[in-house]
Amino acid sequence: MKILLLGEYSALHKNLKEGLQQLGHDVVIASTGDGWKKIEPDIDLLYHGRLKKIMRRIYPLSKIKYMSGFDVAQLINPFVFYGKFYPSRYFIEQIAKQNNRLFMLAAGDDAYFWKYSSKVLRYSAFDDFLKYDLKSPEYYMQKNKAFEFNDYVISRIVGIIPVMYEYEVAYQYHPKRRPTIPIPMNTEKIDYIPNVPQKKLVVSHGLNRYGTKGTRYVEAAFEILRHKYPNDLELIISEKMPLDQYLALMRRTNIVIDQTSSYSCGVNAIYALAMGKVVLGGAEPESLRSLGVSRSPVINILPSSESIVEKIKMLLERKGEIEHIGHESRAFCEKVHGHISVAKRFIEAWNKDW
To answer: Which position among 42, 143, 294, 315 has the lowest Cβ density within 10 Å, counted as fewest Cβ atoms?
Structure first.
């Protein structure tokens, strides 16, 4: 099949492409590179010249001719391009017309996620995102115009594929929702090194969206842990950096703290699992059921500094088990998120007559 993947989040589509290619499919990614992560696409939709405010909105239109004639096209999100609504509506219309079947992932921010997930989840990062990241009482995803655009995109697609529980519940009553398919990870490109602690346990947390990631809880926990275990822990909060640099930092880490306010693991946590790290993040029972598993090596945390301190203290007391937990992390990632098995599930979903 000829497959077009539109948009990118933390190399999700890049990993999916590599799985699809190993299955013999012809795959093209068109994206803006996911901002500072600089994930290189096949078709670059990011305008690099002057007048960026205007040109970045219309530049993708000049690339439509290279994005036609595919058996399947998949949007990573309904709000995948600059401009929010215009000229995105025209762009989506042309992509739908010029390709055989158009699908959409439920991933990242969209209007359904904002409207419905908060009504189901016991906790989330919505409030912290507004307060710390957006610094505003309201987000455009909460407005009727965004919901109407979200619905318009859905009207042009065959199906919606959630990548985790939070998105599954956002679309749980929509007739176009398909079964959840986990985020893919090409573990063949990620070296597994036994996670053997040295004198100090190295604990890291990647800072890119302060509110969304729950970094304030991590900061508060680290303050407590520094005073309580000054000789036992090295605590790192890393700033934004390209993906390759971030992965290099993670290689020397024993424990990775992912999002504190999520039921599920994001791409960052899945990279850490592939590397054999101990992961603190989202592993609620609902999330595991969504992935089709009964257990996970991920240590579930809640959005509180106390929860993080408690789990780090437990790992210090079980320091001798960290290598084993890291081995389980890698095995879990290969089984649940392996890029080839996940790619097969996408092929099945795209080809099925629902």
So the answer is: 294
In whole angstroms, what separates CA 91 from the centre of its chain? 24
Q: What is the pLDDT of residues 160-176, one digit of tens each?
A: 999 999 999 999 999 99
Q: Which domain range does residue 88 map to?
A: 2-186+339-351
With 0-12 CB in 10 A as exposed, 13-18 as middle and 19+ as buried, what is 250?
buried
203 and 324 inside one domain: yes
pLDDT tens for 63-72 read: 999 999 999 9
Q: How far apart are CA 156 and CA 96, in angstroms?
A: 6
Q: Quick one: CA torsion of 327, 331, 332, 337, rounded to 10 degrees?
A: 130
**Separation CA 14–CA 112 (nearest Å):** 25
Domain total for the chain? Answer: 2
Tell me the C-alpha to C-alpha distance, in Å, between residue 228 and each of 81, 224, 322.
Answer: 46, 6, 20
* Distance from the Cα of residue 275 to its chain's centroid: 17
For residue 109, the tally of other CB atoms under 10 A from its CB is 16
Same domain for 48 and 176? yes
pTM value is 0.94
Rounded to whole angstroms, how far apart are CA atoms 14 and 28?
9
Please state the rounded mean pLDDT for residues 263-291: 96
